[in-house]
Description:
alpha+beta, Aminopeptidase, Alpha-Beta Plaits, 2 domains, 6-stranded mixed beta sheet, 4-stranded antiparallel beta sheet, 14 helices, about 20% strand, globular, binds the ligand C[C@H](N)C(=O)N[C@@H](Cc1c[nH]cn1)C(=O)O, binds zinc ion, hydrolase, metal-binding, metal ion binding, metalloprotease, protease
Amino acid sequence: xxxxxxxxxxxxxxxxxxxxxxxxxxxxxxxxxxxxxxxxxxxxxxxxxxxxxxxxxxxxxxxxxxxxxxxxxxxxxxxxxxxxxxxxxxxxxxxxxxxxxxxxxxxxxxxxxxxxxxxxxxxxxxxxxxxxxxxxxxxxxxxxxxxxxxxxxxxxxxxxxxxxxxxxxxxxxxxxxxxxxxxxxxxxxxxxxxxxxxxxxxxxxxxxxxxxxxxxxxxxxxxxxxxxxxxxxxxxxxxxxxxxxxxxxxxxxxxxxxxxxxxxxxxxxxxxxxxxxxxxxxxxxxxxxxxxxxxxxxxxxxxxxxxxxxxxxxxxxxxxxxxxxxxxxxxxxxxxxxxxxxxxxxxxxxxxxxxxxxxxxxxxxxxxxxxxxxxxxxxxxxxxxxxxxxxxxxxxxxxxxxxxxxxxxxxxxxxxxxxxxxxxxxxxxxxxxxxxxxxxxxxxxxxxxxxxxxxxxxxxxxxxxxxxxxxxxxxxxx
Length: 478
Ligand SMILES: C[C@H](N)C(=O)N[C@@H](Cc1c[nH]cn1)C(=O)O
Ligand SMILES: [Zn+2]
Ligand SMILES: [Zn+2]
């Protein structure tokens, strides 16, 4: 059963106020990875909790305890649990999303202030940190709720919400909560399926449903030696320099062709057969899509299937940054005393952090020993998560396919995502139900990057999509 026409009309008629609400959400810089912004993440939890309550959702804030970040003891942001509807004759759908965002500073290269939503009337872009990842999609659910609440129209399904504020920083504390609440009598007991809107279409024109995510293992490698930063004119070529050792170490991790040089990591993944390659060949995607979203002609291959497999079914290793290194303007002639390289590996089945971590540690220690340095090495695993793949023939996906056809008049691409949402597998395993990823944004949204945006049409049509999906679930469940 398609969503009622009044619902679709309501979303169109209220588009401007929905965008205003997105602007209010973007204005809260809820950066989970920066201890100095922890109060903003807490404020964002309060704001979202208030919005849900105003729209008729019964909520509770679930305390996830405390943790330490960069030497600061901090409260973890609470998870927001919500429920609306308790009709035994209806399916119960669990909605997950995250209200924290990646860091952003104008000086990173943004054209506008990252935490002020800018509406570009010419392009229809809504530009601001979190617009696509993941405040826009969360607010899409609020838009759906608002129609039903204001018009006193019962929802076609029961909804249970789980919104967290630490997704961009390893979802600390959430797995335990999900496992506990999935047990008999727990908050999530009775959930029939899960829907997550926290990723992107493959391109800028074809809606997608996503049935796989890569896992992640995130490492911090610290090399230290001198008791303090040193003058390079006085100490250069007289001491072992931590930065030199670290760069040598980082250089042993990945080749310029993307191949992972840590022995055993790439080898763990079986090669794709012709049948699997045909799946990638069929997707609506071209090299210009990746180059358009990357903003430069820098694809690793001109073969579309090779590029798609690199993102969806192969592991990747990325070097993210060096803490403690000189990075300011000017020409400071320092030898940094302690530097930490940060890198992560995106994992695919059958890889897990437990299988890959020992290989990485053994490799780093072996390569460090080859340097014959007197500096010291420390290896830390900051966070991780397993990869996930779902059955896209399940009725949950059928409902999402029907909703996509109803709203976009198009069949969705079936994709596996290169990013990670570690709690996805926890939901699937703890609840024993199907999880469907129903993205709102486009492949060129620039999530985690500068000038992140969500197209107005994706926000509005995406809100219709989320509502339509619920009606299709109710229809299939009859
Ligand atoms: C796909 C999702 N929107 C996302 O961005 N996930 C992050 C999760 C993460 C893990 N460590 C830090 N962030 C990602 O894939 O990077
Ligand atoms: Zn996200
Ligand atoms: Zn993200």
